[in-house]
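Exam revision sheet. Question 4 asks you to relate a sequence to its structure. Input first:
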Amino acid sequence: MNIRTNLAIAEQLIRDTFRQARASGIAGILLAVTAICVVLCLSVRVSGDVALQGGDEPVLFLPQPLPGTVPPTTAADRGVHSVLEANPELARREGIETISGSLTLAFGAVSFPLTRERADAIGFLELLLAGGVAGTFGLLLALVWTAGFFPSFLEPHAAPTLLAKPVARWQLLLGKYLGVLTFVGFQVALFIVATWLALGVRTQVWNLSYLWCIPLLLLQFAIFYSISVLLAVVTRSTMACLFGSVLYWLLAWGINCGSVMARGLPGPEYVPSFALALADAAYWISPKPIDAQLILFNILRAEHHFERPVIFKLLESGCGFSPHLSILSSLGITGVLLALSAFEFDRADY
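Answer key, structure tokens:
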């Protein structure tokens, strides 16, 4: 078959996936979640903030005192700090800005004091949206809600009709996989772009780095969904795909965390050499969700808001971390799982 025929087959399988998602209600649920998050972003308001970007020179600033904040230790420092806090104009003449603004959500129902400038506050919200709502909660929901796509595609009453066409089985399998990825990619792009636009319109902060979350989140789904494809071909059970993909995600977290911790220890006296070799092998042949979280953490410059977690420090310092090799090795295991799925599908009897 020529390229045009292959593209037509892929297009039909993508259309079929979108129809399946709409009929099952999954598309509506995901759109509702996106709409809620967009409304929340449109309710954001930043007031009383100051600009801390002073060209090439670092800007000194006094953050708002927060509950539990440790005051300066010496009497002299406390005196200077109190005078500058009480007199922002004096502090400004000394080249020190005083932050006294606030960030409100839900149209003023919830308010937080600003500790840095406006762009950092919006970056913090984008980190929560990308890393929490979409990256963790959203990924799990996507794996659960799309678990039934492949089993229904391979049902005995549906598969023979597809297999009767002059199309290789592996093409049907990869076409359906591409259809699911296209559907999830559309939802991810809609969520990220819509929340980015909503925050930008309300706050005039346009953080283009936030858009890099689209390919990164889609890549994570593609990696973990490959096990769902294999389980669908082997068992044709929606429940097996559902629980299997979630367990695979949890197992990947455990392996990634354990291998990074083992490889980051200071000396061989803590862990035997064979255990280190096993941890190193496990790291390279399994998906790496912690690596993906670190990449997202760096893209969104989350170190401005959070202390870098210990697991991230170990990953970067003791393991020779490489984002490119991490992604390529995760894609390698995905390719193996898809190849096994195609092989098993080719042998299946319908």
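Marking note for examiners. The longest helix spans residues 169-203.
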